[in-house]
Write a structure and sequence with these properties.
Number of helices: 2
CATH superfamily: RelE-like
Oligomer: single chain
Strand order of the largest sheet: 1-5-4-3-2
Radius of gyration: 13 Å
Number of strands: 5
Order of helices and strands: EHHEEEE
Low-confidence stretches: none
Mean pLDDT: 93
Strand content: 25-35%
CATH class: Alpha Beta
Helix content: 25-40%
Length: 91
Protein backbone atom coordinates (compact mmCIF):
# COMPACT_ATOMS: atom_id res chain seq x y z
CA UNK A 1 0.00 0.00 0.00
CA UNK A 2 1.05 3.56 -0.60
CA UNK A 3 1.34 5.96 2.35
CA UNK A 4 0.47 9.64 1.91
CA UNK A 5 0.87 12.36 4.52
CA UNK A 6 -1.70 15.13 4.78
CA UNK A 7 -0.49 18.70 5.22
CA UNK A 8 -1.67 18.54 8.83
CA UNK A 9 0.35 15.41 9.59
CA UNK A 10 3.47 16.96 8.06
CA UNK A 11 2.98 20.04 10.25
CA UNK A 12 2.48 17.75 13.24
CA UNK A 13 5.72 15.83 12.73
CA UNK A 14 7.61 19.07 12.11
CA UNK A 15 6.16 20.43 15.36
CA UNK A 16 7.28 17.31 17.24
CA UNK A 17 10.79 17.75 15.87
CA UNK A 18 11.03 21.45 16.77
CA UNK A 19 9.59 20.99 20.25
CA UNK A 20 11.97 18.16 21.15
CA UNK A 21 14.90 19.99 19.60
CA UNK A 22 14.19 22.98 21.86
CA UNK A 23 13.62 20.85 24.97
CA UNK A 24 16.49 18.40 24.44
CA UNK A 25 18.65 18.45 21.33
CA UNK A 26 18.71 17.77 17.61
CA UNK A 27 19.82 14.13 17.87
CA UNK A 28 16.99 13.18 20.22
CA UNK A 29 14.49 15.02 18.02
CA UNK A 30 15.73 13.15 14.95
CA UNK A 31 15.53 9.83 16.80
CA UNK A 32 11.93 10.45 17.88
CA UNK A 33 10.87 11.48 14.36
CA UNK A 34 12.65 8.41 12.96
CA UNK A 35 10.75 6.11 15.36
CA UNK A 36 7.43 7.73 14.42
CA UNK A 37 8.17 7.32 10.71
CA UNK A 38 9.29 3.72 11.27
CA UNK A 39 5.96 2.98 12.96
CA UNK A 40 4.12 4.57 10.06
CA UNK A 41 6.18 2.57 7.56
CA UNK A 42 4.90 -0.63 9.21
CA UNK A 43 1.42 0.29 7.98
CA UNK A 44 2.54 -0.44 4.42
CA UNK A 45 2.52 -4.19 5.10
CA UNK A 46 0.10 -4.16 8.05
CA UNK A 47 -2.54 -1.49 7.32
CA UNK A 48 -4.93 -2.73 10.02
CA UNK A 49 -2.24 -2.57 12.71
CA UNK A 50 -3.92 0.37 14.41
CA UNK A 51 -7.17 0.09 16.35
CA UNK A 52 -10.43 1.40 14.91
CA UNK A 53 -11.46 4.89 15.98
CA UNK A 54 -14.54 5.89 14.02
CA UNK A 55 -15.67 5.37 10.46
CA UNK A 56 -12.58 4.65 8.40
CA UNK A 57 -10.13 6.24 10.86
CA UNK A 58 -7.66 4.14 12.79
CA UNK A 59 -5.21 4.90 15.62
CA UNK A 60 -1.63 3.65 15.80
CA UNK A 61 0.21 4.06 19.09
CA UNK A 62 3.94 4.41 18.42
CA UNK A 63 5.79 1.76 20.43
CA UNK A 64 8.01 3.19 23.16
CA UNK A 65 6.84 6.77 22.58
CA UNK A 66 3.88 8.81 23.80
CA UNK A 67 2.69 9.55 20.26
CA UNK A 68 -0.39 8.48 18.32
CA UNK A 69 -0.88 8.47 14.57
CA UNK A 70 -4.41 8.78 13.19
CA UNK A 71 -4.85 7.45 9.68
CA UNK A 72 -7.43 6.15 7.26
CA UNK A 73 -7.33 3.56 4.53
CA UNK A 74 -8.93 4.36 1.20
CA UNK A 75 -8.57 1.55 -1.34
CA UNK A 76 -4.81 1.06 -1.69
CA UNK A 77 -3.72 4.32 -0.04
CA UNK A 78 -3.10 4.99 3.65
CA UNK A 79 -3.61 8.65 4.53
CA UNK A 80 -1.76 9.86 7.64
CA UNK A 81 -4.19 12.42 9.07
CA UNK A 82 -2.53 13.66 12.25
CA UNK A 83 0.18 12.86 14.78
CA UNK A 84 -0.14 13.92 18.39
CA UNK A 85 1.34 13.47 21.86
CA UNK A 86 -0.84 11.37 24.16
CA UNK A 87 -1.01 14.20 26.70
CA UNK A 88 -2.96 16.31 24.19
CA UNK A 89 -6.63 16.39 25.01
CA UNK A 90 -8.72 15.40 22.01
CA UNK A 91 -12.25 16.82 21.96
Amino acid sequence: MKIKFTKQSLRDIEGVYHYIQQQADKEIALEVVHKIKKGIDNLDKHPNLGSKLNGKNRRLVIAGLPFVVVYKINKDIIYILTIFHTSKKIV
